[in-house]
Specification:
five-stranded mixed β-sheet; Alpha-Beta Plaits; 13% strand; Beta-Lactamase; five-stranded antiparallel β-sheet; alpha+beta
Length: 502
């Protein structure tokens, strides 16, 4: 771009150069013309006087004519001499002003296209200079607007990328992994960590940290002791030595530093904080400051969704009273377990005389008895075992990779554990009966094994309750009594009802 170093004085000189010749010519014409007009006027009176007296001669007229001729040509000469200078001065001034305006126009075009341009040097005290000043003000305003727009676009693009990444996952540890990578991308040079409350909401524990976090993390122990969690707002501390710095920041012992803490809200409750450090007295830039609360908000929202979904799925899969698998969930999971084991036992268990317990002590006592029973069995079984509430006071479970002899020892231990728990509770004593079916000896299908175990449970009831019966050992006894194994459960309930009425 062409630049013109025109000082205010030179700029005004250019304008004056165009006007000065005309002014000088006009002044010279006036002075020269006035003097000669006075002279011509005197000569005219002399000619008139000589004409009146009859003394007028040809020489007088010739002198008068020559003088008049000289005046006219003198004025014309001055005018002709001044005109080119005036035109040249005006053209030079206009060209200089035009070049200055062209420079300003090029500046505007470059800035409008987002390209770098050397700043203008406005001329003070003139309209062109004021125009250049206004153009640079507009350029700075547009540049700031463009920078803000680009920052917003970058922030929105980052938000969308984080959101898409979180939408692809459904486990909490995967959320923390995405958050770590997001922090590494957005704030690569700043140490950062995420602290989340445990299930009791009494303690904060670190669930992630970036590679830049080489020092020990924040020592805040519980949510109620974290200022950002209590206030539910992002807090910024310029220095750990400041009077209003977070006490936990002052006690870190890591030298001078600044910090930003952004709360993490899960399902409407603030139970975590995203914490980052920086040099002392160097606050986070406005652009970087957008990322921290954004990541915290995305993490909290996704954790809330995952936990809500998990709670919904758990409610659909489990029994509300005991927390065990419900019948449908047990059948789904039990079928998978059967397909992946070489042998094992399927057991049906039932609380003896449960109706009598309900009628005598009330349904609340009956519910407590069911809960105690389920807790004793759930804690007594192993991780590979599958336990569910089949309905009412009846339970079903699978013991993978056990034969009858080992299985009977496990069941005896469960019954002993139940007896001990009852002795240490205020629930009336009760017993349980169990029926066992063997896989694959008695069958490969869950429904078939359930039917056989239910028949064995019926036999245990008929043989006095508080006992365990195995389906293979009682099959002949069931046939001998004329009981149709297809309707064993219905007949059992009918016979129990008749006994209780009697």
């Amino acid at each position: 771009m062409e630049s013109h170093d025109l000082t205010p004085r030179r700029f005004h000189t250019l304008v004056l150069m165009g006007a000065l010749p005309a002014a000088v010519a006009a002044l010279g014409t006036v002075v020269y013309g006035t003097g000669n007009l006075i002279t011509l006027a005197g000569e005219s009176r002399a000619v008139i006087h000589e004409l009146e007296t009859g003394a007028l001669t040809a020489a007088t007229l010739e002198n008068y004519s020559a003088h008049f001729h000289d005046v006219v040509w003198g004025v014309l000469a001055i005018t002709v001499a001044a005109l080119p200078l005036t035109v040249a001065g005006l053209l030079f001034a206009v060209r200089s002003i035009g070049q200055r305006l062209e420079t300003a126009g090029d500046y505007v075009v470059l800035r409008a296209n987002g390209e770098p341009a050397p700043p203008l040097e406005p001329l003070n005290g003139c309209s062109v200079g004021r125009l250049e000043e206004k153009l640079m003000e507009v350029s700075r305003f547009l540049e700031e607007r463009q920078r803000a727009f680009e920052q917003e676009v970058t922030s929105n693009r980052f938000d969308a990328e984080v959101q898409r990444a979180l939408d692809l996952i459904d486990r909490e540890h995967e959320v923390f992994d995405v958050a770590t990578r997001a922090l590494e991308m957005a704030l690569p040079a700043r140490p950062a960590e995420l602290l989340m409350a445990d299930s009791s909401n009494a303690h904060l524990r670190r669930v992630l940290h970036t590679s830049a976090m080489t020092e020990g993390g924040c020592e805040v122990g519980s949510p109620r002791k974290c200022a950002a969690v209590r206030r539910g707002a992002t807090l910024s501390f310029a220095s750990n030595d400041a009077l209003d710095a977070c006490p936990k920041l002052r006690s870190r012992g890591i030298g001078g530093c600044s910090a930003v803490c952004s709360p993490v809200t899960v399902m409407g409750k603030t139970i975590g904080v995203l914490h980052t450090l920086g040099p002392a007295h160097e606050p986070m830039s406005e652009e970087d400051a957008r990322f921290l609360p954004s990541i915290a908000a995305h993490v909290g929202a996704r954790l809330g969704m995952i936990r809500t979904l998990a709670d919904s799925q758990a409610a659909a899969r489990t029994d509300g009273l005991t927390g065990l698998l419900n019948r449908r969930s047990f059948e789904d999971e039990g079928s998978i377990v059967l397909q992946n084991m070489t042998r094992g036992l399927l057991v049906m268990a039932d609380i003896d005389h449960f109706k009598r317990l309900n009628d005598t002590y009330g349904h609340q006592t009956g519910d407590r008895a069911i809960q105690l029973f389920s807790k004793a069995f759930a804690e007594g079984l192993g991780d590979r075992d599958v336990l569910g509430r089949y309905g009412g006071e009846e339970f079903i479970f699978i013991l993978p990779e056990l034969d009858v002899d080992l299985g009977m020892k496990v069941l005896d231990r469960l019954r002993s554990s139940l007896e001990e728990r009852l002795a240490n509770s205020n629930i009336p004593a009760f017993t349980c009966s169990m029926g066992v079916a063997q896989f694959p000896l008695d069958g490969h299908d869950l429904a078939e094994l359930t039917k056989l175990a239910d028949g064995a449970l019926y036999t245990a009831k008929r043989n006095g309750r508080d006992r365990v019966e195995v389906a293979g050992r009682v099959a002949k006894d069931v046939v001998k009594k004329g009981i149709n194994t297809q309707n064993t459960l219905e007949q059992l309930y009918a016979m129990e009802a008749a006994e209780q009425v009697a």
